[in-house]
Amino acid sequence: MNNTIxxxxxxxxxxxxxxxxxxxxxxxxxxxxxxxxxxxxSGKTTILRLLAGILRPNSGDVLLGGNTPLNRLxxxxxxxxxxxxxxxxxxxxxxxxxxxVLLGRSPHxxxxxxxxxxxxxxxxxxxxxxxxxxxxxxxxTEISGGEKQRLLLARALAQQTEILMLDELTAxxxxxxxxxxxxMISQITREKNLATLVVSHEINLLxxxxxxxxxxxxxxxxxxxxxxxxxxxxxxxxxxxxDFSVRSTxxxxxxxxxxxxxxxxx
Amino acid sequence: xxxxxxxxxxxxxxILLIVWIFSALLSLNIGSVSIPLETCFRIxxxxxxxxxxxxxxxEAILLSVRLPRVLLGSxxxxxxxxxxxxxxxxxxxxxxxxYVLGVSTGASMGxxxxxxxxxxxxxxxxxxxxxxxxxxxxxxxAVLTIVAVYLIAGDGHRFTEGSxxxxxxxxxMASFISSINIFLLTGTNQADLxxxxxxxxxxxxxxxxxxxxIVTGIVFAxxxxxxxxxxxxxxxxxxxxxxxxxxxxxxxxxxxVYVVASLITGAxxxxxxxxxxxxxxxxxxxxxxxxCDNRMLFPAVFVFGAIFTTLADTIARTLLSPTELPVxxxxxxxxxxxxxxxxxxxxxxx
Lengths: 266, 350
Prior knowledge:
A: alpha/beta; 4-stranded antiparallel β-sheet; 9 helices; B: mainly alpha
């Protein structure tokens, strides 16, 4: 069982001015897609950044493959194992779609920083996986919001890591694009045997596509496990302070609907 | 256009080198005494063949005055253009150049302070045995200035897109240090006021001492180090978190680029004075011609800076002939309007 561990965090703690993450232990396994849910400000993004080695914990360890501490590795080495799609990308600069995806090969480049034909092929493969190959020469600044999110995913896939972390990738997208993107990620996780962590506010999407769910409140794990065990009325009420209906579907997932007050439906 | 091919970089750099050779020949040819190109070729060929007989006045002008000046101008131009490219990439702001950021002026203060110290210790500030001391003092002046500019700009404004605070802090520091420079120079009762005034504007007419070898070494080695950081700078220019995620040691790279760009600036300013706007004009034009990829931009801008400064100095030498202008006058005449244009364009975007 140990050989499937991609990343293991134990007893992580982190503070800015006050504690943000407390006593957090989490394991990412190959072929498993984990969804992380929590209210705004609960520390989800900070946890993702700690797991990705972008932030260093005040205490606790993050072990790559269950045995190599992340803080012993350089940034380049980490980026060969962990790909992250951050909440905000910064600028898209002057790149075409293909050139942007090629940036995902950066951790694999030699000292002079030139990509090889092999790197081009890998980038092209990532474009195919994310259904963007037909627009490879389009300007990255000029494509739609949904395409931009897929482009960020493609760049992360071009890194050819075994761990993939996605922070609010489906935010601000139409529902059809959200489903399309989650389906894509789920399929890639299985086919490439990735350990995937998806942070999102879309409870239903995570419940539908993830194998496991982690609930976060106040920087600590409130509950984790398979969807049906974790996505419960009590857990959600505890997390968000309101009532929900939770319905099990035939396909074994859960559907969540918040209870509305009388008069909400004008 | 897909990935960046090294052959493309080599080809474009080779073409630029040919243009540089032509601009150098033009500069050798033009002046108070016109030296026909065939004469230039003959003298250079003879000299390269080791024939040193029969030095006449034309040969003396070519070999002792114009050729060293062309080479010096090329070195200074290349260095300032490369430093400008590095600062712009790092700060994600096309207006950041060593002159605007106050780094050049800080380097000139370092040089002046060293001259005063050397005079009080009875050492020759120019020539003499301590040739490394002057470029080193200029480097210290440059680094201290960039640190001060940083602190003045304040938290939160340092690396944001369009960090105008940093530029404003740089402009304020530059004018402040300029005043200190004038104060220091007036207070020390220098004899060669015209020469010093020219040097403060940026001048290539002063004879160089043995420090030129050290400066040349610093410029070439520094440019090579910056080149090694060029892809990391590409990623940093897209945002620091993005760069971190893609495997860049952001903090280490930034410090290294700051230090090296300041070192290069300090080294050449210790010889030529703070020539304005080369680090602004050359990267801008090179970007329009060759795109924004630093792997292409660094070699291109290195040669382009040499071409631009060679031509600017040729104009400075000949415009009011026989009186010579300091080259900084010409570069400022070109650079200031470009600065205004870029500022307005950025303002329009925001």
